[in-house]
Design goal:
Elements lengths: L21 E5 L3 E2 L4 E8 L6 E2 L7 E7 L5 E3 L5 E3 L4 E9 L3 E5 L1 H10 L3 H10 L6 E15 L18 E5 L11 E8 L2 E2 L4 E6 L8 E4 L5 E5 L4 E12 L8 E12 L3
Parallel strand pairs: 2-10, 10-18
Antiparallel strand pairs: 1-3, 3-4, 3-7, 5-6, 5-8, 8-10, 9-10, 11-12, 12-13, 12-16, 14-15, 14-17, 17-18
Organism: Massilia pinisoli
InterPro entries: DUF4198
Protein name: DUF4198 domain-containing protein
Length: 264
């Protein structure tokens, strides 16, 4: 079992560019009605994966939407109690006050690996590809937890848009029998479809490397072959070049969505 979220969120952990994937990880993605699941914040993959506490002052929102439409505050104890059947939607959102300072070679590699072409284009145009870079960043993490048997109760929250600054929204619930052999999702940036964003699909039980990585189309849609039963993570990163007048070169958002694909 992964390390659990501390009831008192403290001790900020500085994150390197090599361990930027971040998500809210339930101990169980499918629980019985009336049961609960503990939540942890995870960062990195494979041998570098670890628990990532965040100080409470940086958490803008940590909440769960229930199938009935209630909103539960998760910040106090980091645990979801599922009292009704259906999908529950968990959201953690931080402020944008964290900063990353990287030497040129590491920043250029990070930009290439995450498909951050706006940053690459800006640095090329400005002739700064050989300079260190400073970015401010925030994190947005969503997770789906099913109470009851897969498909039982309302599944509406799987496709709900919350208006997050960078958001991944599934096209269909994970248990939808009509989904065929495709897993589709849409990426929204400031409420609009985001094209040419690189989305990665990772098996959380074997997470050393992503299973697949694909760019969104003109409508912000990305499609993967439907993964086998298990616990899965979608993540995307996007950045906006800044003027650098205040010493910051880029404004970056890391977004994730994790969920269970049930057995047929």
């Amino acid at each position: 079992m992964r390390a659990r979220l501390l009831p008192v969120l403290a001790l900020c952990v500085a994150l390197s560019a090599g361990a930027h994937d971040f998500w809210v990880n339930p101990d169980r993605f499918i629980v019985s009605v009336g049961a609960s699941t503990q939540l942890s914040m995870q960062v990195g993959h494979g041998d570098a994966r670890r628990s990532s506490p965040i100080p409470s002052r940086r958490i803008v929102r940590f909440a769960a939407w229930t199938p009935a439409g209630d909103v539960l505050d998760l910040k106090s104890d980091g645990k979801l109690a599922a009292t009704e059947a259906g999908l529950h939607l968990l959201v953690l959102e931080t402020d944008a006050n964290a900063q990353s300072h990287l030497p040129a070679d590491r920043f250029n590699a990070y930009v290439r690996d995450e498909g951050l072409w706006p940053a690459a284009a800006a640095r090329e145009q400005q002739g700064t590809t050989d300079r260190d870079a400073i970015e401010r960043y925030r994190r947005v993490a969503k997770a789906l937890v099913q109470a009851g048997a897969p498909g039982e109760g309302s599944q509406e929250l799987a496709t709900r848009r919350l208006g997050l600054p960078l958001e991944i929204v599934l096209a269909r619930p994970p248990a939808d029998p009509d989904d065929g052999d495709t897993l589709a999702a849409q990426v929204l940036f400031q409420g609009r479809p985001l094209a040419r964003a690189l989305v990665k699909l990772t098996d959380l039980d074997h997470d050393a490397e992503p299973v697949a990585a694909r760019a969104t189309d003109g409508d912000g849609i990305v499609r993967f072959h439907r993964p086998p039963p298990g616990n899965w993570l979608l993540n995307v990163v996007w950045t906006t070049p800044l003027s650098g007048a205040d010493g910051i070169d880029f404004d970056t958002i890391f977004s994730s969505l994790c969920f269970a694909v049930p057995a047929p």
